[in-house]
């Protein structure tokens, strides 16, 4: 018997996003040129802005792991790397905060600063997730792309298009804010190590290094 006939289902765009707007997708072929994939300059601007957000957040996650590594101690670097590996960044922050809490009064100021930093970083984490995990479209009525929330409980009750009303400029600001947040964590890490190294001599066994 011959093979059964192949039934071709009609193609449906499940992300039509409410009429007329073009849904943006990364090209499936790495060597495709702008002309081949039909990309327009505003699409490239959007891709670059989202890419900067992703790259800057990745660096912030790396620095978070390095801070934890330094707190565990350079002599325990392998152990510290094993602790960091595979953890969500929120868990890394939990561990940093827990360790700082055990070092006593010498780092009280740094602990308070880390908690303030973390509140800010959590806001950027939420916005980063919204930017990267949303569906994006270029509407016919506006030059700015529309972000369609696909993650939140509100999205389950109906798509939200008001996540980034400022379009690409707003995304670029978010990328810069995340970069500044990473720099602030790096500076705080140096302050923490300096405070620990300046602590009482009888606490030397508890300090990194």
Structural summary, described in words:
With 209 residues, this protein is mainly alpha-helical. 57% of the residues lie in helices and 5% in strands. It has a 3-stranded antiparallel sheet with strand order 1-2-3. The protein has one domain (39-195). It has helices at 34-37, 41-72, 77-84, 89-102, 108-133, 153-156, 167-197, and strands at residues 22-23, 135-138, 145-148. The longest helix is centred in the first third of the chain and has 32 residues, at 41-72.
Descriptive key words:
209 residues, 7 helices
Compact overview of the structure:
The chain has 209 residues and is mainly alpha-helical.
Radius of gyration: 23 Å
The chain-level structural class is mainly alpha
Global mean pLDDT: 76
Our estimate of the beta-strand percent is under 5%
Number of discrete domains: 1
- Strand order in the sheet with the most strands: 1-2-3
| End-to-end C-alpha gap | 74 Å
Which shape, going by the Cα principal axes?
elongated
Biggest sheet details = 3 strands, antiparallel
Number of DSSP-assigned strands:
3
Helix content: 55-70%
- List the secondary-structure elements in sequence, H or E: EHHHHHEEHH
- Poorly predicted spans: 6-20, 28-37, 201-205
Count of discrete alpha- or pi-helical segments spanning 4 or more residues: 7
